[in-house]
From TrEMBL:
The chain crosses the membrane at residues 53-74, 86-104, 110-132, 144-165, 171-193, 218-242, 254-277, 284-302, 308-332, 344-366, 372-393. The keyword Transmembrane applies. This is MFS transporter. It comes from the Bacteria. Keywords: Membrane, Transmembrane, Transmembrane helix. It comes from Methylorubrum zatmanii. The lineage of its organism: Bacteria, Pseudomonadati, Pseudomonadota, Alphaproteobacteria, Hyphomicrobiales.
């Protein structure tokens, strides 16, 4: 039996620990998109300065997304050996170093830095849902919404500030590398978490045995939905500024408009994830959000200029909402934290590898056609495929053995 007052005395310590985890999760989330979103606004300038072909640009926007999948596949192995807290710290270190590599402003370090940052982002992506399920089991939807919102804020900052930073620093290399600073700044709090006695590797090995889900149809539906909806966002990160420049906007105007779109993802992620998690079934949210994404993208790409800003805001809200739904179904379809880790690794490891085909295909379709109609048809097809998987992933069921 516990001594009288023991539980009462332990409550402040538990609250402090929970608050520390919240701060750490949000600090990490901010750094999981600038490596991806900061390239798009500078892509036209990079092509002009380096002679990079359209196919090379497609590879550049695809490479970090592909590496996200590879990094996510390392998640269960890392969690078993050093625990999720130290695993996220390792991921942040890889992100920071990858961002710093881009400073010289030439193609080899740009590609290498994007690949390394993508590996780190993929690793952290997989482990953060584990921590949400572990530390916030009663409020997983709200916490998922908060960290997804913060992630979207980081993406918006990367898009909106890249062109001004290039002008201020005198080149696209330093502008891209500067994003390593917030990644390094987030590491001290994760170092504190990784050193907590309750999260030493022995415990992580005991609790982190993977749950095999590769024969579970629901797990594959979650994986397909995560990958396909992510491909829509990565197409927007990498190519929306170029689409808008094709309409006659300057690079600064296109980057600003894209940043408005990405900034809109923050409230969309928080609101949709929080509300959808309150229900047992998320299929209606998935269908409605994907419909808004397709409609607003077509308006932004081909509609009159007067509709551009409203359409971009609505597109951002919907993209944030669908990404929040992707992470939410991972948490809700898992009965506990260990299964959440296995499902997160599968959904993001395989899913992000699938998502990498989106920006690659979009860029190749643009090179083949010389315009944006064929890429837009591909975008619609990806949204339809995402809906097909989402209608399965949104059902009120759990992955794993069923009674």
């Amino acid at each position: 039996m516990h001594a009288p007052g023991t539980d009462i005395e332990a409550r402040p310590a538990r609250r402090r620990s929970t608050l520390l985890v919240a701060v750490a999760v949000l600090a990490a989330a901010f750094n999981l998109r600038p490596a991806l979103s900061s390239v798009g606004p500078l892509l036209t300038g990079i092509i002009a300065e380096t002679g990079l072909s359209a196919a090379g640009a497609a590879v550049l926007t695809t490479l970090p997304v592909l590496c996200l999948g590879l990094g996510a596949g390392l998640g269960p192995w890392i969690m078993r050996r050093i625990g999720p807290d130290a695993g996220v710290l390792a991921g942040l270190l890889a992100v920071a170093l990858g961002l710093a590599l881009r400073a010289p402003g030439s193609l080899p370090p740009l590609f290498a830095g994007c690949a390394l940052a993508g590996l780190g982002i993929g690793l952290a992506n997989v482990l953060l849902p584990v921590m949400v399920k572990r530390d916030y089991p009663a409020s997983a939807g709200r916490m998922t919404g908060l960290y997804t919102m913060t992630l979207c804020l980081g993406a918006a900052a990367g898009t909106g500030l890249s062109v001004p930073l290039r002008e201020a620093l005198g080149g696209w290399g330093p502008a891209l590398a500067l994003w390593c600073l917030p990644a390094f700044a987030a590491m001290p709090v994760w170092l504190l978490l990784a050193r907590r006695p309750s999260h030493q590797p022995a415990e992580a090995r005991a609790a982190g045995r993977p749950v095999r889900l590769h024969r579970d149809p629901l797990a594959w539906q979650v994986t397909g939905f995560m990958g396909l909806q992510s491909s829509l966002a990565y197409i927007m990160f990498g190519w929306l500024p170029a689409v808008l420049e094709g309409k006659g906007l300057t690079p600064l105007e296109a980057g600003f408009t894209a940043s408005i779109m990405i900034l809109g993802q923050a409230p969309g992620a928080l609101i949709v994830a929080t509300l959808a998690a309150r229900g047992r079934d998320q299929r209606g949210w998935i269908a409605a959000t994907l419909a808004v994404i397709v409609a607003t993208f077509l308006i932004a790409a081909f509609g009159p200029d007067v509709t551009l800003i409203p359409a971009s805001i609505a597109l951002g809200l919907a993209l944030g909402g669908i990404f929040g739904l992707g992470l939410t179904v991972i948490v809700l379809r898992a009965p506990e934290a260990v299964t959440a880790g296995s499902l997160s690794a599968m959904a993001q490891g395989i899913g992000y590898s699938l998502a990498a085909l989106g920006p690659l295909g979009f860029g190749l379709a643009h090179e083949a056609s010389g315009g944006w109609v064929l890429p837009s048809i591909l975008f619609i097809a990806l949204a339809a495929s995402s809906l097909a998987c989402g209608l399965g992933a949104g059902r009120a069921r759990h992955v794993g053995p069923r009674p």
